[in-house]
Amino acid sequence: MNADEMDAVFAALASKPRRRILDILKKEPGCNVNRVAEFFDMGRIAVMKHLTILERANLVVSEKVGRERRLWFNPVPVQMIYDRWTTEFSAYWAGDLTRIKYRLENAPVPIGAASKRRQAGGSRG
If 0-12 CB within 10 Å is exposed, 13-18 middle and 19+ buried, where does residue 9 land? Predict the structure, then answer.
């Protein structure tokens, strides 16, 4: 995901109505624009403008079926952003939790566990 795509995702998620639209689509995948508009006090055109922004950010996928437009939430961009900032830290904290578990159970900490922490930049041991 490049910087412009990431900016589009963050900009789309910055709006409360757009986050609410994603919640609706998560609960009712494949619903149409009219169904989404039922949840808001704004007009259908305003909802469609929000949907356009969500589609540009690739957070919503739509398919035209006859005269209807069916909508689905696409969680992939959110997952990509999550992975970008959490993957390296997840391994670090998972190691910490494992060491805590061993200590609480009075079990010896495996030999490689302490060195992995130092490699990851931690100083506690």
Answer: buried
- pLDDT for 123: 44
Overall average pLDDT of the 88-96 stretch: 73
CATH 1.10.10.10, the chain: domain bounds: 3-74
Which among 16, 51, 12 has a CA at the least distance from the CA of 33? 51
Q: Whole-structure pTM over 0.85, yes or no?
A: no
- The whole-angstrom separation of Cα 53 and Cα 5 is 12
**Residue 113 Cα distances to 46, 59, 90, 100, angstroms:** 54, 39, 15, 11
Q: How confident is the model at residue 122 (pLDDT cuts 50, 70, 90)?
A: very low
Q: Which CATH architecture has domain 3-74?
A: Orthogonal Bundle (1.10)
